[in-house]
Amino acid sequence: MFKRTGEVAALPLPGEHPGPTSREAYSLKVTPDRTEVQAVSSAGLFYGAQTLCQLIEGDAADAVLPEVEIHDWPSLAYRGTMVDMSHGPLPTEAEIKRQLDFLARWKANQYYLYSEASIELEGYPLLNPEGRLSKDEVRRIIAYGRERHIDVIPNLELYAHLHDLFRVEEYSQLSDLPHGVEFNPSDPGVIALLSNWIGQLADLFPSPFVCIGFDETFQIEMAVKQQGASASATRLFVKQLTDVTRLFQQHGKQVMAWADIMVRYPEIVADLPPGLIAVAWYYTADSDDKEYKHWLGPLVAKGVPHFVQPGVTSWSQIAPDFDTSFENIDTFLAAGRKSNALGVINSIWADDGQILLRMSLPGMAYGAAAAWQSTLIDRPHFFSNYARIMYPAGISRDVATALEKLSQSETELQKVLGPATQSALWEDPFFPTYLKGLVPNQGNLRQTRLLAEEAETHLYHALASGADPTTLNSLLVGARLLDYAGQKFQTPPELIELWGRIGTTRPDPDKWWNEWESQVVYQDHSHIVDLIDAITELRPLYRAEWMDEYSPYRLASALGRWDAEYEYWRRLQQRLQQFSDSSHEGDVLPPLEKLAQEP
């Protein structure tokens, strides 16, 4: 039985507080005779129902609920997730609804739709026409979120990060540099354009909240460095921030803005527009600033209301770096609780344009669960607990193990390629800078592959056992791509060693064939052909996952990297085969590194 004792109160409003008497609190009791959930609001009842689902033990006809009595409430009133619609692929309406379904299971109550130019605006037909959500799509997404007690909030950029606008010649003069990324607030046309945008967006999004960006104003930063911290550039920043804030406040909105520029120049904090909520963001847990004093101190000192914004480190990684993500979420939340932060926003960025976002779902769940509970997440058992809730009992162990091994594989690869493994994946492994670091790290590359292959094995078993491919196929692509990355960067040192064994001159035909040509360039399986096969087999799987999550926008650009990877190995195979065809027994052999480099 579900019993609501107050108003519906489906969504969070400004000024909410957590606690046992809050709008979202609920009581749940399971006895042999009945199950009862009671709450003040529909949101509380909804969260009680989610907990009931998590309590179920067993599957299908064997499923049971334990006898239990629970009184539960969130530790933070605002528990958001921000998903990037602009830096990389554009999720479809259906995919955003899947994300909302997923986040609802973890009791999130805010969804920040990050848009630089990814929302249709009337009167701007040239603004990103292939890469935006229509107003009707946005309206349906908002309604869908409300049904799941999630407020869909626009997370905009209204100062910097607007190259999509300024690359259009009609609007290029509004930037402070030719075809730049930032508005020129001194241009009177800027406020006219923003007034139009703000009116449309305020009408489109019924949420009382809006985030207006104002982060990473690199061009104004250059002016500050040239003229000093007290120069007009900072005053210009404050003026633009105040103008945009007031325009939204005229529409009744609670305005939020990112705080990186504010805390970099703390003298401007006292001049922030009244009513503004600052959002402190940072995506790693620095060992020398575990309490994030650099990011929170100037805000706390002036009594500025604020959120904290950690992130899931997946925007330039082959697979999410869950270790970094979980540590960042845990420590930033702990710091935010000490600083009396109003809420949390968990970031899902797509900077490298290659990300399969579904791989980040465990990180999204971690952020939402951590914001609800007052104690730390049981991190060593998180994957097991996550998989138990998400998958049938006979499958969950495979999924948990796969996630653990996938995360470990990504960590091993980072020891060789650095943190941005997805970007490094496409680099030339024979380039001297990379080649120098590969020889001493062959053990890490082997571990990368062994862990990735273990993850693959468990994912294949889970899928064969009937697991939902929607959440697992992208993980399988990630595991296979990690395996490929390990193989790719193992290959140059192995080939150089084979080359060295041959000697300084080309040997007789039998030895040349047996010890080099058949092993390295022969089309019927060899080192290079193995890599050609691997990348071409993965390409259609990656494309299929992309099309399952995203619109076709930027797909061709993403696949261009895969095509270039195939071409790299094909050309290397061709160069080595041409050398084999044109050289003769007794000829001096050049260094393989030189032969591998394109002329």
From TrEMBL:
GO terms for cellular component: membrane. InterPro entries: Beta_hexosaminidase_sua/sub, GH, Glyco_hydro_20_cat, Hex-like_dom2, HEX_bac_N. One of its GO terms (molecular function) is beta-N-acetylhexosaminidase activity. Residues 1-24 are annotated as: Disordered. The active site is at E216 (proton donor). PANTHER family: BETA-HEXOSAMINIDASE, BETA-N-ACETYLHEXOSAMINIDASE. This is beta-N-acetylhexosaminidase. It comes from Candidatus Sulfotelmatobacter kueseliae.
